[in-house]
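WARN no homologs supplied; continuing
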Amino acid sequence: MPKLLHATAALSALLATSLAASAAEMHVKAPPPAPMPPVLTWTGFYIGGNVGGAWARHNWSDSTFGLDLGGNDNGVFIGGGQVGFNYQVDTFVIGVEGTFDGAANHNRTDGTVFPALQGHLIQVTSNDNFVATLAARFGYTGWLGSHVLVYGKAGGGWVGNNSFTITDVTTGASITGSSNNAAGGWLVGGGLEWAFAENWSVKIEYDFLGLSQRTFSVPVGPIFLVGDTFATHNNDLQMAVVGLNYRFNWVAPVSNPVVTRY
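OK structure emitted
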């Protein structure tokens, strides 16, 4: 009987040792690492809207008397949209953007006394109705992190006009003529854009447009100054806007291969 007990104990110990050795030789599969977050990229198309203000400056003159009429231009509300494309290389971003904004800007003179009208005070008013721009953008994301783009712009801009009015302030008589001409010129600007969500970003931007001369001719009719041509000089327009963009292809997920360790 004691021999049977000793044999059983020895067999149990041998079996336990064999099972432990087999377990030690089994392959242990480690849990996969957590996936990396998607990499932010500014590459892709975008579309958005903007609101802000515009301030015009120019001087008026006329062809008949050669008078400098001065100017008195007020700031106005503007609003519209933009569409563009960005391409990112490392921390640098290049792209192109077009904008179109409606405006209701009544640029006018303070009033000038015309000798031929025996001291009558004349005021000239023109009605700007839109601002359009097309420009290259060049930005950098290395200063404030990948979610913040600091950028500059350079290109061209156009301001459209749909009417002008010549008013004799002394008598109250006036005449309004239609005008479909646009003043074009160069544009420089810059801004800051922040990606606050996966596909959304918000921006603040300032632009300066140096515009060409624009002319208006008084139409033929029973009114003063018939045939006189009024021209604008030293034209420029400043704009400050805030905008919201929706971006396509905003993120590019980085895949992590599952590593199994044995």
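The domain at 42-250 is CATH 2.40.160.20 (Porin).
OK
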